[in-house]
From TrEMBL:
Pfam families: DUF349 (PF03993). Residues 25-48 have a biased composition (Basic and acidic residues). InterPro entries: DUF349. Residues 532-559 form a coiled coil. This is Chromosome segregation protein. Keywords: Coiled coil. The keyword Protein biosynthesis does not apply. Residues 1-48 are annotated as: Disordered. It comes from the Bacteria.
Length: 601
C-alpha cells in the first residue's frame, strides 16, 4: 500500500519498540487492583455479618424486585446463608427450651414461621438468576462477534486498505468501538484481547505511517493521559476513601486500554506521575481500616454491654415474681433486637461474641422456665383454697342476714384476689362458679335493698369502696378478671342519694382508663346484673361497632381488586389478608355478643 511521507525502516522499528513498552507498562498495577477488589468484597461481606433475619429477608426481596436482580448473585447468596444460619439458631433455641422443659429431644418438632418465605425468595431468585445468565451468555456471544469483527477491520486496515483511506479516522473509530464494546466470556477475553493488541501493534509497526498521523495519534493519547492524571490528583482529597479507590481502579483501566501510545519523551514521565499519585491514594487504605476498626470496637463494646444486661436480668438478687419475669422478657426481646441491629465487630472476636450472646440468652430462658415450673406446685394449693371459697359462697348465697352476709361476701372476694394463680385449665371454670354464687347473693340483696330508699346511703358507701378498689387496678395478670368482678359488683348495688349520683360518672371514667390500660374493649367485658336500659345501650354500641368493622372490611377487599395477582401467596398482600382475617374474627365476636344480649343470655 502506498502512503504519503513513508517512514524509514528505523523509524518504524522505533515506533514498534515504543508501542511494545507502552502496552506492558500499565500491567504494573494489576496486582494492586486485584488486591483492592478483594478488599472491597471482603469489607462488604464483613459489614453485613450481623444483619438481622428480618432485615436480610427484606433486602433479599428488594434484590428480587430490582431490574438487575440477576447481577446480585454474591450479595443474595450471602444474605441467604445469613438467613439460613439465623433460622437454624432460632430453631436450636426452641429445641433447648423444649428439652429444658423436661421433654425428650427426639420428640421436638418446630417449623420456623419465616422458612417458607425464605424458600420462596430463593426459588424466585434462582429463576431470575438463570434468566440473567442466559441473557448474559447471549449478550456476550454478540459482543464476541462484534469484537472479532473489529479485529478483522483492524487487520484489514494495515493489510488491505484502499488508497485514500483516512487512517487516523479509521483507527480512531475502531479503538472507540472496542472500548465501548460489551463484556465477553472470561474464557474468551484473554485470547481476544491479546489478538486485538497484537494487530494494533502490527498496525503501528508495519503500516507506513506518515509523520503527521503519528503526531496526531501521540497528541490525542497524551491528552487522555493528562485528563486521567488530573482526575487522579482530585481523588487524593476525596473524603470517602473507598470511593477514591474504586475510581482509581477505573482510571487504571482507561490508562491501559485508551491512553497509549504517546511520544517517548512523555512516556515514562506521565506513567511515573500517575503511579506516584496512585501510590498515595492506596496509602489511604490505612484510614479506611482505622475507621472500620474504631467502628467495630465500638460495636463490640455495645454488644458486650447488652450481654451484661441480659446476664444481670438472669440473676435477680431478690426472689423474682411473675411481674418481674414478664417485664424482663420484654426487655430481653428489646435487647436482642438491638444486638442484631448493631454493626459488625472485629472478625477474630466475632464468633466468641456471638456465642456469648446465644449462651446468655439460653441461660435467661432456662432460669425463667425453671421459675414457672416451680409455680405449678403452688398453683394446685391455690386451686384448693379457691374451691373452699366457692363452697362457702354457695352455702351462704341465699342468706338474708345482710349485716353478716354482705361482709362475708366482701371478705370472700378480697380473699379470692389475694390467692395466686391456679392451673390455666381451671381458671375460667372456678371463676364462673364463684361469680355465679356471688351474683346470686348480690342480686337477691339488690332486690331486697331496692324495696326501700333507706339503703341508698349504704349503697353509696359500697360504691365508694368499689370505686377506690377499681382505682388500684394495674395491668398485671388477672386484672381483667378483677375488673369484671368489680363491674358486676357495681351493677348489683342499687341507687344512691340524688346528691351523690356523680359517683356513677366517676366510676365510668375510671373504668374506661383501666380497660384502656389492659387493652380490652368495654363491649368485650363480662358482666352480670345489667338493667334493661344498660343492656339496650350496650346493644346500640355493639351495632355501631359492627357497622364500622363491616365498612373497613369492604374497603380492604376492594383495595385488593386493584392488584393483578391478589392471592394470599403474594408476599406484598400477606399482611392485608391477615388484617382482614383479624377484623372478620372480631366481627363474629361482636355479632355473638349482640345475639346473646338480644336473646337474654
Amino acid at each position: 500500500m502506498t502512503t504519503e511521507n513513508n517512514l524509514s525502516e528505523n523509524e518504524e522499528n522505533k515506533i514498534s519498540t515504543e508501542v511494545t513498552q507502552e502496552e506492558t507498562t500499565p500491567d504494573k498495577t494489576s496486582d494492586e487492583q486485584n488486591t483492592h477488589e478483594d478488599e472491597s468484597e471482603h469489607t462488604e461481606e464483613h459489614v453485613d455479618a450481623e444483619i438481622s433475619l428480618s432485615d436480610a429477608l427484606k433486602e433479599m426481596e428488594t434484590i428480587i424486585n430490582s431490574n438487575n436482580a440477576g447481577e446480585n448473585f454474591k450479595r443474595f447468596n450471602a444474605l441467604k446463608e445469613k438467613a439460613n444460619h439465623a433460622i437454624h439458631d432460632e430453631i436450636e433455641d426452641k429445641k433447648h427450651e423444649y428439652t429444658d422443659a423436661g421433654n425428650a429431644a427426639e420428640n421436638f418438632s418446630y417449623e420456623h414461621p419465616l422458612q417458607s418465605r425464605l424458600s420462596a425468595l430463593v426459588h424466585i431468585f434462582r429463576e431470575k438468576h438463570e434468566a440473567f445468565q442466559k441473557s448474559q451468555e447471549e449478550e456476550q456471544k454478540k459482543n464476541l462477534e462484534h469484537r472479532q469483527e473489529l479485529i478483522d477491520r483492524l487487520k484489514n486496515l494495515y493489510t488491505n486498505s484502499e488508497p485514500g483511506t483516512n487512517l487516523f479516522k479509521s483507527i480512531r473509530e475502531i479503538k472507540e468501538e472496542w472500548s465501548k464494546a460489551g463484556q465477553v466470556a472470561k474464557s474468551e477475553f484473554k485470547i481476544l484481547n491479546n489478538n486485538y493488541f497484537h494487530h494494533l501493534n502490527q498496525f503501528y509497526q508495519m503500516l507506513d505511517l506518515n509523520k503527521e498521523f503519528l503526531e496526531q495519534e501521540y497528541s490525542h493519547n497524551l491528552e487522555k493521559r493528562q485528563h486521567i492524571i488530573a482526575r487522579a490528583k482530585e481523588l487524593e482529597n476525596e473524603p470517602v476513601v473507598q470511593k477514591a479507590l474504586n475510581e482509581l481502579q477505573y482510571l487504571h483501566k482507561l490508562w491501559k486500554e485508551e491512553a497509549e501510545p504517546v511520544a517517548e519523551e512523555f512516556r515514562e514521565k506521565t506513567w511515573d506521575e500517575f503511579k506516584e499519585i496512585s501510590n498515595k491514594i492506596h496509602e489511604r487504605k490505612s484510614e479506611l481500616s482505622a475507621a472500620i476498626e474504631t467502628e467495630q470496637n465500638a460495636n463490640l463494646e455495645k454488644k458486650n454491654e447488652i450481654i451484661a444486661e441480659i446476664k444481670k436480668l438472669s440473676e435477680p438478687k431478690d426472689n423474682p415474681n411473675h411481674n418481674y419475669w414478664q417485664s424482663s422478657i420484654k426487655r430481653v426481646e428489646e435487647l436482642r433486637s438491638e444486638f442484631l441491629k448493631t454493626g459488625s465487630v472485629p472478625r477474630k472476636l466475632s464468633n466468641n461474641n456471638w456465642n456469648d450472646f446465644k449462651s446468655t440468652l439460653r441461660n435467661f430462658n432456662t432460669t425463667k422456665n425453671n421459675y414457672y415450673k416451680s409455680l405449678k406446685g403452688s398453683q394446685q394449693d391455690n386451686l384448693d383454697e379457691k374451691l373452699k371459697l366457692i363452697q362457702t359462697a354457695k352455702d351462704n348465697m341465699l342468706s338474708e342476714d345482710w349485716d353478716i352476709a354482705v361482709a362475708l361476701f366482701k371478705k370472700l372476694q378480697e380473699d379470692w384476689k389475694k390467692i395466686g394463680h391456679v392451673p390455666k385449665s381451671m381458671t375460667n371454670k372456678i371463676w364462673d362458679e364463684f361469680r355465679e354464687a356471688c351474683n346470686t347473693f348480690f342480686n337477691n340483696y339488690r332486690e331486697k335493698s331496692n324495696a326501700s330508699t333507706d339503703n341508698w346511703k349504704e349503697n353509696y358507701k359500697l360504691k365508694k369502696e368499689i370505686l377506690e378498689e377499681l382505682k388500684t387496678i394495674s395491668d398485671e395478670e388477672g386484672s381483667i378478671e378483677k375488673i369484671e368482678n368489680i363491674k358486676t359488683s357495681w351493677n348489683n348495688i342499687g341507687k344512691v342519694p340524688r346528691d351523690k349520683i356523680g359517683i356513677n360518672s366517676e366510676f365510668n371514667k375510671t373504668l374506661r382508663e383501666k380497660l384502656k390500660l389492659n387493652k380490652i374493649n368495654e363491649l368485650e367485658l363480662k358482666e352480670e346484673g345489667l338493667s334493661e336500659n344498660q343492656l339496650t345501650d350496650k346493644a346500640r354500641k355493639i351495632k355501631n361497632q359492627i357497622a364500622d368493622l363491616e365498612a373497613e372490611i369492604v374497603k380492604l377487599e376492594n383495595n385488593l381488586s386493584f392488584f393483578k395477582n391478589p392471592s394470599r401467596e403474594n408476599l406484598m398482600l400477606r399482611d392485608t389478608y391477615n388484617t382482614i382475617d383479624d377484623k372478620k374474627a372480631h366481627l363474629e365476636t361482636l355479632k355473638q355478643n349482640l345475639h346473646n344480649i338480644i336473646a337474654g343470655e
